[in-house]
Design a protein that fits this description.
This protein is α+β, with helices and mostly antiparallel strands. It has two domains: 18-187 and 294-340, Antithrombin, subunit I, domain 2 (Antithrombin, Chain I, domain 2), CATH 3.30.497; 195-292 and 344-390, Alpha-1-antitrypsin, domain 1. 27% of the residues lie in helices and 30% in strands. The strands form two sheets. Strands 1, 5, 6, 7, 8, 9, 12, 13 and 14 form a nine-stranded mixed sheet that branches.
Length: 395
C-alpha cells in the first residue's frame, strides 16, 4: 500500500507537489529507458534512472542560463526549489537504507581537471548530494584519467571496462569535467525461490530462437494483472516484493510469443505504471522466472542529447559558472553503469542446482519464457531505481 508524504514546506503558488514530483521522476525514468533501448536494440539491458537523475541534479546546481534550462526541462523540476530538495533528500535517504538484507548503492562522481578552481558553494553541494563525490584528475593525461575513472567504478560495482566508453576527447587541453554515475542493487525476495525447483526450461529470445536456460520456480501469493494495449495486444504484469516490501520488481510480459516486446514497451507511461502499482490483484500463482544477470555500461552523451541536454556537452555554449568562474568548462564525458542479478534467494548466490520434475497444479501460471521488461520500484516514493529488459537470459 502506498503512503502519501505531504510536502512539509509552506510553498508559494508555484510550489511543486509531492505527487507531481513522483510523476516527473517516473516520466524521466521512462523517457531515459526509451532512448537507451532504441540505441541498444534487442539486447539485454539495465539502466538506473535514479542514478542518472542524481548526476543531472548535481549539474543543475552548477549550471546557468540555457544550460540550466535544458537540464531542468529534461528532469522536469528545478533543483533550487526548496520543496524539490526536501522531497529528494527524503527519497535518497529511503533508497539508500540498507536494512533487512537489502543493499542499494547509488553513487555519482565528478572528475574535475586539476586546473579548475571550483566554487566553494558548488563543492559543498556536491559532497552532500546523494552519495556524490568530487575527484580531481589531469585531463591532459588521458590514460591516467581513464584508469582513475575505471578504479572508481570498480570500487563501486566491481569490474567494468570503461575504455570502450571513454572517447578521444579526454586528451583535450580544455578544462573539463567527466560525470560518472553507478547503481548497484542486491536484495532478498520476500519469498525465496528454492534451488531445488530450478530447472533448464525453454526460453524464446527476441530473435525468435529457443534455448534452455536455468529457470526458477515457486508458488506464491503475489500481485498480478492482465492488460491490453489500444491495439489489443495482451500482456501480464506481476509484482515480486523484496524483503520488507519497500521495494518490488515488476515484470511485464507479452501474453503471446508473436507479440514483440517493443509493442508492449511503447505502452509504458506514468499512468500505466501508477495503474499497475494500484490495481494488481492478489492471487496465488505458479511463477517461472529465468535467472539473469545484466551489466550495462553506457556513454550517456547521445542519450542525454536526445532528451534535450545539449549545451552541457558543447565547449562553446556550456555555462557552468556555478561550478567554476572559468569560461571553458563543459562536460566532456558522461558514463553510466548499472548492474542487477536475479537469483533464487534474490541475492548473488552460487550452488549446485538439482533438477526436479515440477508438480502440476491448477494454480494460474506466470511463465517468463520469452523477452520481458522489468522495473524495480520503491513503493513509498514511486521512484524507479532500475528499468530494463531480458531478451536472452544466457547472455
Amino acid at each position: 500500500m502506498e503512503t502519501a508524504i505531504k510536502c512539509p514546506i509552506v510553498c508559494a503558488a508555484n510550489c511543486i507537489s509531492y505527487d507531481e514530483l513522483k510523476e516527473l521522476k517516473t516520466e524521466f525514468a521512462i523517457n531515459l529507458y526509451r532512448h537507451v533501448s532504441e540505441a541498444e536494440n534487442r539486447t539485454n539491458l539495465v539502466v538506473s534512472p535514479a542514478s542518472v537523475a542524481v548526476s543531472l541534479e548535481l549539474l543543475q546546481f552548477g549550471a546557468q542560463g540555457n544550460t540550466f534550462m535544458e537540464l531542468q526541462d529534461a528532469l522536469g523540476y528545478n533543483i533550487h526549489d526548496p520543496s524539490v530538495q526536501e522531497f529528494l533528500h527524503a527519497l535518497y535517504e529511503g533508497v539508500t537504507d540498507s536494512s533487512q538484507g537489502t543493499v542499494v548503492q547509488l553513487a555519482c562522481s565528478f572528475f574535475v581537471d586539476t586546473g579548475v578552481q571550483l566554487s566553494p558553494h558548488f563543492a559543498a553541494r556536491a559532497v552532500h548530494w546523494a552519495n556524490s563525490s568530487l575527484q580531481q584528475t589531469n585531463f591532459t593525461d588521458p590514460n591516467r584519467t581513464t584508469a582513475q575513472i575505471q578504479e572508481w567504478i570498480t570500487g563501486k560495482l566491481g569490474d567494468g571496462d570503461v575504455r570502450s566508453v571513454l572517447l578521444e576527447s579526454t586528451g583535450s587541453p580544455l578544462s573539463q569535467v567527466a560525470l560518472v554515475s553507478t547503481m548497484y542493487f542486491k536484495s532478498m525476495w520476500q519469498k525465496k525461490f528454492s534451488f531445488m525447483d530450478t530447472q533448464m526450461l525453454p526460453f524464446t529470445t527476441a530473435e525468435g530462437s529457443t534455448l534452455k536456460v536455468p529457470t526458477m520456480h515457486h508458488t506464491a501469493e503475489v500481485n498480478y494483472g492482465q492488460f491490453q494495449t489500444a491495439a489489443l495486444e495482451a500482456f501480464s504484469v506481476i509484482e515480486l516484493p523484496y524483503l520488507g516490501e519497500k521495494l518490488s520488481m515488476f515484470l511485464v510480459l507479452p501474453s503471446h510469443k508473436r507479440t514483440s516486446l517493443s509493442q508492449i514497451e511503447s505502452h509504458i507511461s506514468v499512468k500505466t505504471i501508477t495503474l499497475w502499482a494500484s490495481s494488481l490483484k492478489r492471487m496465488k500463482m505458479d511463477i517461472f522466472l529465468p535467472r539473469f544477470s545484466i551489466q550495462s555500461l553506457f556513454d550517456l552523451k547521445t542519450v542525454l542529447s536526445a532528451l534535450g541536454i545539449r549545451d552541457a556537452f558543447d565547449p562553446i555554449t556550456a555555462n557552468f559558472k556555478g561550478i567554476s568562474e572559468q569560461d571553458d568548462l563543459y562536460i566532456s564525458e558522461a558514463i553510466h553503469k548499472a548492474e542487477i542479478e536475479i537469483t533464487e534467494d534474490g541475492t548473488k548466490a552460487s550452488g549446485a542446482t538439482a533438477m526436479v520434475l515440477l508438480k502440476r497444479s491448477r494454480t494460474p501460471i506466470f511463465k517468463a519464457d520469452r523477452a520481458f521488461t522489468f522495473f524495480l520500484r520503491e513503493a513509498n516514493t514511486g521512484s524507479v531505481l532500475f528499468i530494463g529488459r531480458v531478451t536472452n537470459p544466457s547472455q
